[in-house]
Amino acid sequence: MHPRDLVHDNVQLLSMPEVCLRIQQLADNPYADMAEFGQLVIQDPALTTRLLKLVNSAYYGFPGRVDTISRAVNLVGIAELRNLTLAMAAMEVFGGLENEHFDMLGFWRHSVYCALVARFLAKQARVLHAERLFIAGLLHDVGRLLIFSLLPDESARIQQRMNEGEEVCAAERGELGFDHAQVGYELLSLWQIPKELRIAVAFHHLPDVAEEARLEATLVALANQIAHQVETLAKENATALRDPFGGFTNPRILDDTELPIIEAIPAVYWTQAGLSAGVVNAAVAATAADFDEVLNILYSV
What we know:
mainly alpha, Hypothetical protein af1432, 17 helices, 0% strand, globular
């Protein structure tokens, strides 16, 4: 089986909601105006509600309350609207795929945290339209979700191999002949996501070999590693935290996380991103401030 087959054999199940797809297409039209975007959004009541919640959250920090979709669209802009609707649509698509062996909430907690870190790192690296990296971070592991949901028997064997110490991509390739990063690339291709974001997802475990979009792939790889390390360290210090990802409430714990996180990340990633490992603490602190609110808004399907 090719990873493309897994996606295209389930096109009906995995198709993006029509409103979101039309927003993605309209965003590629240089002649589209903001009113057209607003008219599309209001066709989906759930999307309308969550978009208004998000633009009124501390994540954006706009002065005054935003009560209309037209104002919300004008405030966030087309690029950010495209990302937000895609994030919400992705969670909606996967809302019915949960199985008893997969922790859906845990999956999205990791994904949202990774998305926020990727967006922060992209800003630090002065990436043009840094908000794009939120989507790449959010969707970096969707291939895992598809494999777990659509190939449960193979997934059980993959998990067994991982329990025995095998790295996730190696275990997947051993059972399937491909890995979740490749599956993610194929799904994002189906969704017509920009190529550099697809490449970032495809190479988030091996950013140093990406021939294109290496910076984007590296930023997602860094965000993913930081997210995994924060979760591990938070669990080890669970009594000092309100939630493994929900923010470090004790400054001493935040300071203590810096060294093990840095040690776990290949030095070449920092070089490729043009960043210093000293940014880890700032990334963790900034992400903690937004995590709970963004997760609660997005994960409300």
